[in-house]
Design a protein that fits this description.
mainly beta, Thrombin, subunit H, 2 domains, six-stranded antiparallel barrel, globular
Length: about 230
């Protein structure tokens, strides 16, 4: 029997799952993750065909990570599967706080990263990506998940992890330009981007601007108006 030294939490949490299925087609769906640990989880009711060794992305709340599929079993519901996943090296499970409920603290350790201090906002925020070598065309795109320290851009052909470039965006009437790097690249889905040279005061201004946009959408929705 497989030895399982890590503590597991039976709670089911809603997650978003994406990647390439067993047929090489991109997919994106909602699912439930249970049997949580600091290393992996079990995904329930996956409606796409996956196989052992596939790499997928999972998001819980504002955090994302990449995982390897370690087993696939048919669910009770037809055309649905339960999938076991393990987080890739140098990645943190998005449900770290949940998984830590029954895990004793490690000496000298801490949970999660102190790097991100800003909440992400799920708004369409236009940005421009350009390159210092001037050999590649500028990319006009929109972030779908953005905060003061970075964003996520949905694209079928994401840049490779570690690619450095320049991001330009606007806060009201002011043009902001900063360097950035790709921290996560999910083929057929998108890429996670970290702003690497954005001053603290600009981060705070951007966060306040995003919160104002988010509140405007929420107000319009509550009044039955198109956002």
């Amino acid at each position: 029997m497989e030895k399982r030294p890590e503590q597991r939490v039976a709670a089911d949490i809603p997650v978003r799952v994406w990647g390439m299925d067993a047929e090489g087609k991109p997919f994106f769906q909602s699912a439930l993750a249970g049997n949580l640990s600091c290393e992996g989880a079990q995904l329930a009711m996956i409606s796409h065909s996956l196989k052992t060794g596939d790499i997928i992305g999972i998001q819980y709340g504002e955090k994302k990570a990449r995982f390897e599929v370690i087993w696939v079993k048919p669910a009770m519901v037809p055309q649905r599967n339960n999938v076991g996943v393990m987080v890739l090296p140098k990645q943190e499970v998005p449900w770290g706080v949940v998984a830590a409920v029954n895990r004793p603290p490690e000496a000298g350790g801490h949970l999660g990263s102190e790097k991100r201090v800003f909440a992400r906002h799920k708004v369409q925020f236009p940005i421009e990506i350009s390159f210092t070598d001037g050999k590649r065309a500028h990319m006009q795109c929109s972030s779908t998940d953005i905060g003061g320290r970075g964003c996520y851009v949905e694209t079928m052909v994401p840049l490779q992890m570690g690619t450095e470039f320049i991001i330009t965006f606007w806060i009201d009437s002011e043009k902001i330009k900063t360097t950035a790097v790709v921290r996560a690249s999910d083929p057929g889905v998108g890429m996670g981007i970290e702003f690497t040279a954005l001053g603290a005061h600009i981060q705070e201004r951007l966060q306040a601007y995003l919160e104002k946009i988010d509140q405007g959408f929420a107000k319009a929705a509550s009044q039955g108006e198109p956002a």
